[in-house]
């Protein structure tokens, strides 16, 4: 048996012994035997170091030369090439051969639907050539790509400096990237595409060529991505004074891709799902997602590429910061409240679960087996929350000065999270020493808040305690510096001034100790506190709100986020109450809440998209996170009961309001809001079928707007409506040739609320559209099932868990990275009841016993079973 995968530790970081400052690469592209010639300038950095050690995986080594002489003084061990050579500087030439066609891991150089493409982050460059594959080795690259003329576009990073034809029907292009970069930002693409070209003039007046490469025939779906790119370029100039730095910016959309997109310098590679959109084929959510990912990858040009990570433990340096930047970009362009709601949902649904499960890790992990396992909601989304807290503590202007200082100090370097925090505190003069524990400590702090109103002195006291539950990776925790934003409302919902002893108090309270009492003067009657406004810190909150206080917040709070948050608390409070109570009378939503919902849906001023968010009950996972043992069946029953109640109580409102919406298929914020609102109405309407409602549903299924069609189909599927099967068949017939739309169809099938859904999914493995080697297909079908079909995923015969494990066993061989991401729904098994625990454990045991279990799955399964 091969040795078990080994962990690497942050504490063991050492600077590189040798560096490569310049590399010339030549690729002679052939599907099964691509020849890669790498000529590097090697320099010894550590005089005491003996050998130059390079990484290489699945490479066929052909020849090595040093300073133009054949070189044989090397050895190979595991996945390392060891060069025994005394000189301090030399030219190293390595020729290797690789097989893109057989590369199903989608890491390194592979073929995606006939096009060559690369993915090197985190450690994929070692599948292309031998190299010190670590982010602190920064080099300039010159890349020559040679291929048959049947492959017209030959692309790599930087600017094209030469191209031409060769003998034997071949041609070539040479690219030069003047900016030093780590090898994870290397990219090569070669294939046949349609190209959308455009240009952008930067604030200093330089013209940048923009090129978007899509599969032949897809130009009619490319304009939104291009428009988004230009908006992102402008936003970064306006908000951070950051301009693009090369003469050309290219984006390529490919079908086979492990994640959303990749920020390779000057040549972003995108999952086609995150680029292609038109009104017929993409939903408003897709449009929003595309804009935000295009922005995200563009923003990496500075936060990630110009300043990169010293080592992979520092991943949040670039990812947390860039997610924060893309969230702000979306909020500036669209609705701040809605964007905040979306970000907080990710935190509460996924990040809190990760932090309380077997893979808990700080945003700067200390121990890693497979780096690809750490592109997590913790590193990305909690990382962004940590940056947001710095923004809150420093204020907008200081934050901008901190960013300026960060670039002034570190442009062109590979640095650490500590370097970032130092720039922030040096620029602002604000001490962030205690705050830094957010980087090293995992887990979700729990804040217990108590109030006391002293009517005699008209004083209000708020006592906040911070508690830190132990996590799988760490028992002992430190107190954190927590920015705790509040508002106080009077009984009419008016905002009260915050003051103590005649001085105003900032609405952001600084909690640093285990417990602190804050005192507010001149409060004339017991107020309603709005706590953790805008989710000012990634914490859970315990406060004994009564319904009236929460209703007051929903009706009056200044922040849309806080209104939504209060309504979520109200729902959760009553869901928990219903689950814990024996009395069936208690298992329904109280009349006051139904009245509140009626008031909301009929509100003339509230943004329609916000209304549709407000009306949604919390997700299964959000509710589950409230329990130590997840009452799966009860959650499902109570949610169904409440939704049915809402749909009956508001049926007439939903029908008449539905009929009033007239979005005309536009893309304006107003029209997007109207479609979201209609979607919410029919979601509830589908639960109480009448002839009139059926007609509405049928008509919306026939719409030529994908947002509408998908909303109608989702409503039918989740309500187990008699029209569901026929409408899904109609959809399939219409869209069978559109790959991305067919993924939506797969996902809908996986969500069918029907006892035979597992068998149905197995049959769909044979569908001509399904391809187990394509992550989009696999996730559309199986992850949608695990995430959105809680009832059947958690079926007590274990069939849901087995379906997922069977798939993971296959994916372990084909694409370990994808397998490892898809195992998430099995990870938190210890929170299930004992019957279900046994069923999941059986599947985890099966995985653990696999021969050739990939390091990716090994790390997850081992932790899960600990
Ligand atoms: N940096 C890439 C993610 C790479 C994932 C490697 N498994 C995309 C992004 O965050 O922008
Ligand atoms: Zn990123």
Notes on the structure:
Among the domains are: 1-191, tricorn interacting facor f3 domain (Immunoglobulin-like); 736-866, Peptidase M1, alanyl aminopeptidase, C-terminal domain (Zincin-like fold, Alpha Horseshoe). The protein is 40% helix and 21% strand. It contains 28 helices and 33 strands. The strands form 9 sheets. Strands 6-5-9-3-2-12-15-14 form an 8-stranded mixed beta sheet, with no helix packed on it. The protein is globular, with a radius of gyration of 28 Å. The model has no long low-confidence stretch (mean pLDDT 97). Bound molecules: (3S)-3,7-diaminoheptanoic acid and zinc ion. Residues 121-122, 259, 261-263, 296-297, 300, 319, 372, 375 line the site of (3S)-3,7-diaminoheptanoic acid. Residues 296, 300, 319, 322 line the site of zinc ion. It comes from Pseudoalteromonas tunicata D2. GO terms for molecular function: alanyl aminopeptidase activity; metallopeptidase activity; zinc ion binding. Residues 443-543 form the Peptidase M1 alanyl aminopeptidase Ig-like fold domain. Its cofactor is Zn(2+).
Entry keywords:
866 residues, alpha+beta, Immunoglobulin-like, Zincin-like fold, 8-stranded mixed sheet, binds zinc ion
Short description:
It is built from 28 helices and 33 strands. It is an alpha+beta fold and 866 residues long.
Low-confidence segments, given as residue ranges, are: none
Strand order of the largest sheet: 6-5-9-3-2-12-15-14
Bound molecules: (3S)-3,7-diaminoheptanoic acid, zinc ion
Number of helices: 28
- The average pLDDT score comes to 97
Superfamily at the CATH H level of one domain?
A: tricorn interacting facor f3 domain
* Radius of gyration, CA atoms, in whole angstroms: 28 Å
What overall geometry do the principal axes of the alpha carbons give? globular
The CATH architecture designation of one domain is Sandwich
GO molecular function: alanyl aminopeptidase activity; metallopeptidase activity; zinc ion binding
Function: Aminopeptidase N is involved in the degradation of intracellular peptides generated by protein breakdown during normal growth as well as in response to nutrient starvation.
Protein name: Aminopeptidase N
Family: Belongs to the peptidase M1 family.
